[in-house]
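Table S2 (continued). Query chain:
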Amino acid sequence: MELRLTAATVASAAGGELIAGDPASIVDGFSIDSRTLKPGDLFFAIRGERFDGHTYIRAAVDRGASGVIIDDAASATAVSPGRAVIVVADTIAALQSLARHIRRESGAKVTAITGSAGKTTTKETAAAFLEQRYSVFRNRGNLNNHIGLPLSLLELRHGPDIAVVELGMNHAGEISTLVRIAEPDVRVWTNVGPAHLEFFGSVEAIADAKAEILENALPAHVLVANADDPLVVARARRFGGRVVTFGLRASADVRASDIHDLGLDGVEATLHTPEGQARLRSPLVGDANLANVLAATAVALECDVPLRDIVAKAATLRPMHHRGEVHRLRGDITVIDDSYNSNPVALERSLQMLGDQQGATRRVAIIGEMLELGKASTALHERCGRVAAAAHLDRLVTVGGEPARALGRAAVAAGLAETIVAHALTSSEAASVAAGWVAKGDVVLVKGSRGIRTEVVVERLIDKFG
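Corresponding output:
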């Protein structure tokens, strides 16, 4: 059911005061960016580290904003007469309060996903499974932080049955804030790894921060937890609701056995669930994606989606842009585009997957530096270098700063010939190296942290061989 929001309702839910405008006026939408604001939107003047939305109030009004939410009453002078003006103590806190209000009033069932890797794939897969029976909302792109998540939850005013959202974090306390806003009925914890290690003292500390997903649980709430991750299992025991596990362990509630790796065509396995078992095939590549499918299956079963429908949908899944996309180019060249982001656990799995590819003329990896790893960065890159050597790659290009160089040196020390390893400072430079190296029959993995922009390499290869 569509929620009808008036200026007065928004002001009350946001903890503010309506000082101008018609209390009964209808609010059609919300925006925090005057450049993308649509006529009729209510503009939140958010204060950030590098910007202040109050500076753009006039621009928002000129683009047709129906009103503004501000934390400085003096800024109301920039608002045309007749527009709503809501004054709050803090515009970010107001956004979060309004989102929580809409989440409650919408009646939607909320599933929230966290983890060091696999959040987005699990989210999209779970949404795909659920859409066979329900109207489903999922948050888009990187809208998973203290601003992005509440912006996403505002969309629940349109009345979906279920929302599937991911919760991101860089620091302790952030997941806790997001859980208080989203109040999830189902929580999913995919895994723990050294992503964002720069901001934490250890992987144990990362696990403790991720464990904030367990907070404020009611007995009716459900946690879908990775049975194969001991850091998750150890903390899941204190969850206040019911725990459902997924993984490869025989004790997992939703598990896979008799797994057949189909290479770049995906994976096939026997799926065991409380609702029975079935043979499942997924085009998503690698064991990590199989784990994501298992987690999504557990979510769908909790929402009464029939097992047969889950299996049928799994066969049609496709990777998201830059997240394991497989491009088959001229000359029987295959590019695995996993350039969206990277961390040590995900990179090791990708390198192992590349090493397992059969029938390739050569196996080539273009690996960008992994960021936000702090003091452990060099050691973690070196470990991945040894994995690259164990995968018996035929070509390796590292991209970025000294940690990336360390990855290449470790690969050579572990057995790769120095002549097949190269380093590039930028992805543009790496693209030129790759374009000169890649030849007929090669399978090419491209992976790196977002800040390294390894998608540039993918674009160059597609432009040359597509």
